[in-house]
Amino acid sequence: MNLGQAILFVIAMLFAVGSSILKVEFISEIDLGFCRLSFFCIASMVFSAVLVPLTFAQTSARIQDNSFLVEEAYNQEFGVVQHISNFVYLADSKDWAYTFTQEWPVTGIRHQLSYTLIALRQGSFSSQGVGFGDVFLNYRYQAIGNGETRVAFAPRLSLIVPSGNSNVGQGFGAAGVQTNLPLSIILNRKFVTHWNAGATFVPHARNSDRQRASAVAYNLGQSVIWETTPRFNVVMESVFLSAQKIVGSGKTEWSNTLFLNPGIRWAYNFKNGLQIVPGIAAPIGIGPSAGEKGVFFYLSFEHPFRKIPEQ
């Protein structure tokens, strides 16, 4: 068995296990919209795996800006765009969400613009089916370092566009802002850590009962990446969210969630500059989220969109 066959075998086993989990958890909840999105996510990952042996031209470029729930502090390089898909399903709440993010450098690595689109279904509103959530328009500034330095810091500011339907839990119901402060530190040749602290503010948020109040949320995140090889990493993330929930007109209550998210990611690098990174993880609720569990799929395509000058 050569390297390409071995990779395909591992991917097939991962999808077999993931499909079994999904089948058991989704059997009583499945709907047409979910089928379409699940098929899209899984088919995209399978397509990337099948593509490799057809054009098996690997280079040694390492995996870097491909975390799952924790944001890394690396802006896109000059002339390179990244397309990121995430899919998460939580078995206890029956919530699921698919997000698509596209990141573009602005003249160089210092400034980056991106947007995030969301499709989701809240388990508490399962009869309402699938809908689109709010749109996030993001700006990130590479304040310290880059992908080649030991320490990198890239604060992000996002505008929340209220495109989702808050009546069925698919949006905030009003415009808002979000900030995140990602810090990345290379510990040694094999281990990298990432740290997040952020906040969200929606001054006129609305709940499913059409009641309005100002809502605030705080998030913390930390991850450790074990680079077993440049193209295969083991990921361990922890994420905490404390958010205000609207319980009446002008009234809110705090609720907390805490998850561990162990997973793996691997890369396919091509001589034309394309890098494909699939990943899979298993979110596990602890503390205030004890008993919750789920599955998480990741897929990234990163490639040049213009000729990059030689160094």
What would you say this structure looks like, in words?
This protein is α+β, with helices and mostly antiparallel strands. The protein has a single domain (3-304), classed as Porin (Beta Barrel). It contains 2 helices and 17 strands. It has helices at 3-26, 32-54; strands spanning 80-90, 96-106, 108-121, 131-132, 135-141, 151-153, 156-161, 176-180, 183-186, 191-206, 212-229, 232-248, 251-266, 268-269, 275-281, 284-285, 294-304.
Short account of what is shown:
This protein has 2 helices and 17 strands. With 311 residues, the protein is α+β, with helices and mostly antiparallel strands.
Tell me the distance between the termini. 37 Å
What is the global morphology? globular
How many helical elements? 2
Helix/strand-derived category reads alpha+beta
**Strand residue content:** over 45%
User: Could you give the order of the helices and strands?
Assistant: HHEEEEEEEEEEEEEEEEE
What is Rg? 20 Å
Give me the count of strands.
17
Helix content: 10-25%
Remind me, CATH topology? Porin
Q: Give the quaternary arrangement of the chains.
A: single chain
What is the CATH architecture descriptor? Beta Barrel
